[in-house]
Design brief:
2 domains; 9 strands; Rossmann fold; 42% helix; alpha/beta; six-stranded parallel beta sheet
Length: 280
């Protein structure tokens, strides 16, 4: 029977534990974990995502500090705001909502987030430490996928995982996390030659290319684990999922699979950041 990797269900279950951890932090230290979200400009999708993250904080008793900057904001102005949040002792985590307007040097701004507050896992240093299996917060979407695979006891060691996508906050960290779990990993993208045959060799397929239904159902072999990290206005992901449902070993539904785990992981890592600070 095909396993449905239900991220929505796992995220809701996790929030019970998160609420207890936040309550314990408040009781023992008087501190409330705070996630600072920076929104530059007025992109409707980004506005929705920031609101969802704020609601998630509220559900478990955390606080969110919403920082809104105009679409004309310069890189220097954004760096100054990030520096202020880095220095703010009350802030446990910082999230810079992606994408930022074109005039912003987004990578420079990401890399100026204090590593201890990089709860979205976007800094180059954090990526390097994670790849080397040192302590660092992982990029939220791939780490959310890893948590989902672990929860459903999906075997990874020795399996061939094919990641389609190479973005710095999804495809690349996803490949490193799978490699660190002893999978054999192939990274592909939209320009890969013989893509169908490579995907057909995969025990685990991760769609992270950002193109609706780019990965065709006939490319995926029987009993593969199918993880779709995409979501598009057409209410579909990066994989042509419907024909696969009855012949794969496990799959993430779209929506309700990977998406809820992304925000859930962001919240989890903000709590961890606050706990780490109290311990130290």
């Amino acid at each position: 029977m095909t396993i449905i990797l239900n991220g929505k269900e796992l995220a809701l279950k996790s929030e019970e534990d998160f609420s207890n951890r936040v309550s314990a932090i408040k009781k023992t230290s008087g501190i409330t974990p705070i996630l600072a979200t920076i929104l530059v400009g007025d992109d409707p999708a980004s506005e929705t995502y920031v609101k969802m993250k704020g609601n998630a904080c509220k559900r478990i008793g955390m606080e969110s500090l919403r920082v809104e900057l105009s679409k004309e904001t310069s890189t220097d102005e954004l760096l100054k705001k990030i520096s202020e949040l880095n220095a703010n002792e009350a802030v446990s985590g910082i999230l810079l909502q992606h994408p930022t307007p074109s005039q912003i040097n987004e990578r420079l701004c990401f890399d100026n987030i204090d590593l201890s507050k990089d709860v979205d896992g976007v800094t180059s240093l954090g990526f390097g430490k994670m790849s080397m299996q040192e302590n660092a917060f992982g990029s939220c979407t791939p780490f959310g996928i890893m948590r989902l695979l672990e929860h459903y006891e999906i075997p990874l060691s020795g399996k061939h995982a094919v990641v389609i996508g190479r973005s710095p906050i999804l495809g690349k960290p996803m490949a490193m996390m799978l490699l660190n779990s002893n999978a054999t990993v192939t990274i592909c993208h939209s320009k890969t030659q013989n893509l169908a045959s490579i995907i057909n060799s995969a025990d685990i397929v991760v769609g992270a290319v950002g193109i609706p239904k780019f990965i065709k159902a006939e490319w995926v072999k029987e009993n593969a684990v199918v993880v779709d990290a995409g979501y598009h206005p057409q209410k579909c992901g990066d994989i042509d999922l419907e024909p696969l449902i009855d012949r794969c070993y496990a799959y993430t539904p779209v929506p309700g699979g990977v998406g809820p785990m992304t925000i859930n992981t962001l919240i989890m890592q903000t709590i961890e950041s606050c706990e780490n600070k109290i311990k130290n």
